[in-house]
Amino acid sequence: MPARRRSSKPLGPAACEGDARKLEFIEDMTANADEVQLRVLSEILKRNAETEYLRRYGMGGSTERKIFKERVPVVAYEDLKSEIQRIADGDRSAIISAIPISEFLTSSGTSAGERKLMPTIDEELDRKQLLYSLLMPVMNVSVPGLDKGKALYFLFVKPWTTTPGGLPARPVLTSYYNSRHFRQHPADPYTNYTSPTAAILCPDAAQSMYAQMLCGLLHRLDVLRIGAVFASGLLRAIRFLRLNWRCLAEDIRAGFLSSNTIITDPSVHAAITARLCCPDPSLAEFIAGECAVEDWAGIITRIWPNTKYLDVIVTGAMAQYVPTLEYYSGGLPMACTMYASSECYFGLNLRPMCRPDEVSYTIMPNMGYFEFIPLSNDTNESSTPEVSSENIPVELSEVEEGREYELVVTTYAGLYRYRVGDILRVTGFHNAAPMFRFVRRKNVLLSIESDKTDEADLQAAVDRASKLIEPCGARVVEYTSQAYTKVIPGHYVIYWELMLRNGGEMPGAKILERCCHEMEGAFNSVYRQSRVDGSIGPLEIRVVRPGTFEELMDYAISRGASINQYKAPRCVTFQPIIELLDSRVISTHFSSKLPSWTPRVMHA
Ligand code: AMP
């Protein structure tokens, strides 16, 4: 199928010759999207012709797209578990990839409560680096002068583990920041970060944050852009400043880290000591003055007045943070630059200064081979279409503007026709390459940070916790939930309507508090890890008075819902419904303990 070429405004003008080459690369890839996709697929199939996986499906060494699509099935993680387990256990034969799997990237998507393990190979780092190298040339088209200052990016690694076969298993960014691609990147004006590499690579989140914030404050007038990967990360940094500005200002005033500093990692200590070279009482006074003001509206621009934009993802689950970021930044533009996952880095936003609700990502056809399962217009949140003759996956060059699709990827690292779980809508084209709005993650009900809780997880957690109220003669008759992000960190709110048996009594506060803890213990490891590292706050149960869910149904029916098909929503986002629920709350309870989470040897 030939790529349908469409005209679109060329990118540019480029800020410099180097940028011009990068923009040309984007134009070339997007203009020849289908040719590039054919080449990528053929490369993947050729090098992996002898793998057990492709042989199993009778590819017979073919590199033909048609044959590939006829013979190799569209799969989900559960279908690959045994292959992944064998690799994790140390089988080095060519199971899915001719090039040995170098490590596993632990996705925030989970399987049986644990992070999914995504195979990767070393050369994928080159592809990631290439995609990163396109971001600034695109940004420079809209925002000139970024080479004249610094970037304050809050970047973190997480502790990692190894599989029984000895392969590292760690989050994708932990892998990238530890790679030579990041650590030994030749200096250029656009990687002039305020954070020392030692601080970024420190696995202790509190030390890392303290060091990064301190350096950001020291260079406050040089900072031209502020970012984190996700909006939730940047808000966490602001909260950290709110809690720690006195210590930070004190260290700046003194010109050295105080004797009881939390910075104990020697390399972070050394990096900070090199920067904190002399006392700066006036900077300390300024920071203390700004932070002591009760109202933190516009705090970002008050402290870093030359910031031109925030570089954070505020699409998908992160859209809920836009108003809070607007508040703290006094309305700075928010640039969502990239769309990526543990499976594969997908693409970039060619108009990064657009409004958050207008963000579209252009999938770069050189990153992997992409297919798209068309969704019918009535596909709702809970249904996950099976691939059938009605919704055969289409090519990157075949998607239609206005339609929604589920993304399927074939990677250089040995995933073939793998369902990523993201639903995207085509909003237009750049040359022959479609641009996609991120619509939602399949089956995700609640998300505060990278956690993803689906309806089944929530049901299982409610079932488990409600056992604790049975002895009182009480049970949960209805429930729903909300990702509550008006405070930092956000937390899950679960609304419970209880019913008492004859002679039953309302469970006391202590029992309901234990229910909160029990629910947290039932959630997957990403949730529990985020609770332990403080990026999600304690779960809250709000008990509503009897009859509340009946009222909710009346409300939905008054707005056109069918009585026959009505089901209580398991998550609410619509403000009037939240207000209705909140107005019926009779008691609130919080988890008072952290759920258990420990890094463990990874099994598929
Ligand atoms: P992980 O596998 O944990 O790295 O998570 C990857 C997932 O995060 C993707 O499949 C998306 O669901 C989500 N994601 C990544 N980038 C974006 C983005 N720019 N906008 C919205 N969601 C994103």
From TrEMBL:
<feature type="domain" description="GH3 C-terminal">
    <location>
        <begin position="457"/>
        <end position="574"/>
    </location>
</feature>
<keyword id="KW-0436">Ligase</keyword>
<dbReference type="InterPro" id="IPR004993">
    <property type="entry name" value="GH3"/>
</dbReference>
<dbReference type="Pfam" id="PF23571">
    <property type="entry name" value="GH3_M"/>
</dbReference>
<dbReference type="Pfam" id="PF03321">
    <property type="entry name" value="GH3"/>
</dbReference>
<dbReference type="Pfam" id="PF23572">
    <property type="entry name" value="GH3_C"/>
</dbReference>
<dbReference type="InterPro" id="IPR055378">
    <property type="entry name" value="GH3_C"/>
</dbReference>
<feature type="domain" description="GH3 middle">
    <location>
        <begin position="361"/>
        <end position="441"/>
    </location>
</feature>
<comment type="similarity">
    <text>Belongs to the IAA-amido conjugating enzyme family.</text>
</comment>
<dbReference type="InterPro" id="IPR055377">
    <property type="entry name" value="GH3_M"/>
</dbReference>
<protein>
    <submittedName>
        <fullName>Indole-3-acetic acid-amido synthetase GH3.8</fullName>
    </submittedName>
</protein>
